[in-house]
Specification:
The protein is an alpha+beta fold. The chain has 15 helices and twelve strands.
């Protein structure tokens, strides 16, 4: 059964199945009320034995006033109010096994109970075979002669018997002596259906509770299925549409304040991010195609002209142009590949604590050694002694500053300087890269971080820059929950400011 349950794929069906399994386990309880029946029978035996002993004791105390005459025994039972046929039947037998007293003979006929069956009684009657107790069938006389014979030998017997209607009756027989007269036997027996009626009533109450629980469970199952399974199914279908077509609308569940509402918001945000990513990829692909087309067109034209040109000087010039185009294509392809790898790497989010000071010192040392001395440009570094820790990827953070310093070098004249300053606030690390170049035209400040956008002197631009450097910087800083801005210095030159959250 459990294996079949695990195979159920529908969440709504699982909710209903879980509730039904609990109800089935609850319902099996009334099939095993037999234990209560056993306890009840044993309790009745003990009660009848106690009652029989009390009656026998009373017979001993009243022996002088009681003889063998039946009328005197009747009067004694009436005056003592020992028993009632509503609870138990009282019989006395002599040594000849003849009945000399029966409480039913003199009590009013008050046992004519309503024989109408209720719905639950009729329903439970069909299950009676499940509740049958392993007991002997009562003899046709209505009592066991063997039990009475045993009691004449001084033995007290207590046994239960199965009635024709499936019920149980308990018989207790006890020796009875009155004033040293002949021995007699007192027989107490529960009324027909007494125990069975109690058990059936218990089962009826149990069945009523079960049916109420079943109704409530089915209602809750259907309700939960509607409030949980259906919204989830809507979300799944909407997400599937987005994944298949790349477009689609996630159903709004802003009115829900539960987990499903939170899930809907998360899926909506994720879908929005995916759609933005798709648009970004499409735009990137279009930009790449456009940027590659220009050098390829120039290269094609140079080669075609080179094939028909006979002038040596012209052929040298065309060859030079072809090499510049190839150099630019190589730079473009390298930067495009780097940008693509960068996106995957940042998406993994495998960040670690990085000390910005170490990164800046390394960038400045490499720059001074390889480039700045040749160009006669001074690179200055001003950083605090305390650690400046941020979360990120060391190589990618270093790439940001390499790109910014390289950008500053391309605009700086010989004899000028580049300043790198770093400090901290309570929550942020702030790094500045400032140069003494011509600055950024005001109309270009808003586009400086766009892909493939470049603005630099003609003699330095061709083939040396892809226009992806600053775009990559912004991409990296954004992934670190930071900010990068570009401004012009009042004294001349450009300034790039980076703000990153501190990591303690």
């Amino acid at each position: 059964m459990m294996l079949n349950f695990l195979k159920i794929e529908s969440l709504g069906s699982r909710i209903i199945a879980i509730n039904l399994i609990g109800l089935i386990l609850l319902g099996t309880g009334f099939l095993f009320v037999d234990k209560s029946q056993n306890n009840l029978i044993e309790a009745r035996k003990e009660a009848l034995i106690l009652q029989a002993n009390l009656i026998a004791f009373s017979f001993t105390l009243n022996a002088q006033s009681v003889n063998q005459e039946v009328n005197n025994i009747d009067n004694l039972f009436l005056t003592q109010n020992w028993t009632s046929t509503k609870i138990a039947r009282t019989q006395i037998f002599n040594e000849n096994l003849q009945e000399i007293f029966d409480s039913r003979d003199f009590e009013e006929k008050t046992l004519n109970e309503d024989n109408k069956e209720s719905f639950f009684s009729g329903l439970l009657k069909n299950f009676q075979t499940f509740f049958d107790r392993d007991a002997p069938v009562i003899p046709k006389e209505g009592y066991s002669i063997d039990d009475i014979k045993k009691s004449f030998t001084g033995i007290t017997t207590a046994r239960e018997y199965k009635l024709d209607n499936g019920g149980i009756t308990v018989h207790v027989s006890i020796p009875l002596e009155r004033n040293n007269l002949k021995k007699e036997v007192l027989l107490l027996s529960t009324n027909e259906g007494d125990i069975g009626r109690i058990i059936i009533e218990e089962r009826q109450r149990f069945l009523r509770a079960f049916l109420i629980a079943l109704s409530v469970s089915l209602f809750l199952s259907i309700s939960l299925s509607g409030t949980i399974a259906r919204p989830l199914n809507r979300l799944a279908k909407a997400a599937e549409g987005v994944s298949d077509a790349g477009v689609g609308e996630i159903p709004s569940m802003d009115n829900r304040k539960d987990e499903i509402g939170g899930l809907a918001k998360s899926v909506k945000r994720m879908t929005g991010a995916l759609q933005e990513r798709v648009k970004s990829v499409e735009a990137f692909a279009a930009d790449v195609a456009h940027e590659l087309k220009n050098p390829l067109t120039s290269l094609q034209s140079a080669i075609e002209t080179l094939q028909i040109s006979d002038e040596e000087e012209e052929r040298k010039q065309l060859t030079k142009i072809a090499f510049k185009d190839l150099k630019r294509l190589d730079r473009l392809i390298s930067d495009i590949a780097s940008s693509s790898r960068l996106e995957v790497e940042l998406a993994k989010g495998e960040f670690e604590k990085i000390d910005i000071r170490d990164v800046l010192e390394s960038v400045v040392e490499v720059t001074r050694t390889n480039i700045s001395k040749k160009l006669d440009i001074d690179v200055r570094l001003n950083i605090p002694k305390n650690e400046i820790n941020v979360l990120g990827i060391g190589d990618r953070i270093a790439q940001v500053f390499y790109n910014l310093v390289d950008n500053a070098l391309s605009f700086s004249k010989s004899g000028s300087s580049i300043e790198i300053n770093a400090w901290t606030t309570k929550k942020e690390a702030i790094i500045e890269v400032k140069d003494q170049g011509p600055g950024i035209p005001k109309e270009n400040l808003g586009r400086i971080f766009e892909r493939f956008y470049t603005y630099r002197p003609e003699e330095k631009s061709f083939g040396n820059n892809s226009g992806l450097g600053l775009s990559i910087c912004k991409q990296i800083i954004k992934s670190l929950n930071g900010t990068i801005i570009a401004t012009n210095r009042a004294e001349g030159g450009a300034s790039f400011t980076i703000m990153l959250p501190l990591q303690n």
